[in-house]
Amino acid sequence: MLDRIAAALAERKRKGLLRTLRPLAPGKPGHVVREGRELIDLSSNDYLGLTRNQVLMKRCIQWTEHLGTGSRASRLVTGTLEQHAAVEAKLAAFKGSEAALLFASGWQANASIFKALVKLAPGTTIFADEVVHASMHLGIAAAGKRQVRFPHNDLDELDRLLAEQGPLAEERIIVTESVFSMDGDRCDLVRLTEIARHHDAFLIVDEAHATGVLGPRGAGLSAEAGVDVDLVIGTFSKALGSFGAYVAGSQLLCDYLVNACSGLIYSTALPPPVLGAIDAALDLVPGMDAERAHLAALADRLRKGLQRQGFDTADSDTQIVPLLVGGEDETLALARRLEEQGVLGVAIRPPTVPPGTARIRFALSCVHHEDDIDCLLEALGETV
Ligand code: PMP
Hints:
The protein is α/β, with parallel strands linked by helices. The chain has helices spanning 2-14, 54-67, 75-79, 82-95, 106-118, 134-143, 155-165, 189-198, 221-225, 251-260, 262-265, 272-284, 289-308, 328-340, 370-383, and strands at residues 25-26, 31-34, 37-41, 99-103, 124-129, 146-150, 171-177, 202-206, 231-235, 245-249, 320-326, 343-344, 346-348, 358-363. The chain folds into two domains: 13-42 and 289-383, Aspartate Aminotransferase, domain 1 (Alpha-Beta Complex); 54-286, Aspartate Aminotransferase, domain 2. β5, α6 and β6 form a beta-alpha-beta unit. α4 runs parallel beside α12 and α13 runs parallel beside α15. Helices cover 44% and strands 17% of the residues. The two termini are 42 Å apart. 4'-deoxy-4'-aminopyridoxal-5'-phosphate binds at residues 105-107, 110, 133, 135, 177, 181, 206, 208, 235, 237, 245. It is an enzyme of class 2 (transferase).
């Protein structure tokens, strides 16, 4: 096996496609320092700038001093602190759901919920938007069930596929994201919910990139659409500034996941410092409308600037703005040239995105200024 590993890596390197971990340090807000140079960081998920917020940092320290650094066990053993229950209640109130559950990560939640659900109905068919996050594809594969992928955001086709194949299935699950992580576009949740109800399908929506950023009080797109989604997944690792994830839904659903979801049952409960940061973020985020408006305005400025320069920004209309390049080599070269000019814009390549759609994925934060966007646009003007 090691020979094969060495050969695979050598081949990647020969093609200039080797992935490596490149350390950096935080710089001034919205910036990072790499190899001694300060770069504008336009590729992180710290959408509300909360990773270095004083309130979050203080509560992290307070809860650590009070409760320790670790939760000592998984949730069903001795890992459930009173604070887990309190944060889950706060989260359910924030999301407007009956109940909520904490998970160690969005990856872990997505990788394990499908198996828990489909074991109740072995004849389940899962209908998934073709570009949903890799962790959901993994979770669906782990459930070993039939998966039907529908073209990205094509709800007419989803409706048709459900009409054609739905009646053959014992149960139907629909899976999508409310804001897509790589294109920055949105799903029409009002229509999707109607389709789900019409075909008696269970609806799962990943709100990783919408939580904190969109909807009333930052509660996400399902709240904005005013729809009832059966199961919402979201993370604390993006706009909420720390780590971990949640599932929000009915009390019945959460009670079931506590009994059946391996990602929750067999993993150590979130530790007090992280719980403290989540608790503080849940206090702050609802009041951050001004930050959300600033972020939306920055994204608009970036999209318009890129489009003026002739770039394709797909259907982005959120804080995630892709600059579609196409080829992997050209995308990597563009990212390198941007970095030389002081801008960090990370190249995203297949298999993370479909073949032929390599891109620079810009992801903005409310700590950025208009000048940062203009710097990027100027750098692009000089490099391309
Ligand atoms: N879902 C989506 C849509 C994501 O973009 C991500 C993170 N890249 C995840 C889930 C995984 O979340 P986490 O980082 O908490 O594991």
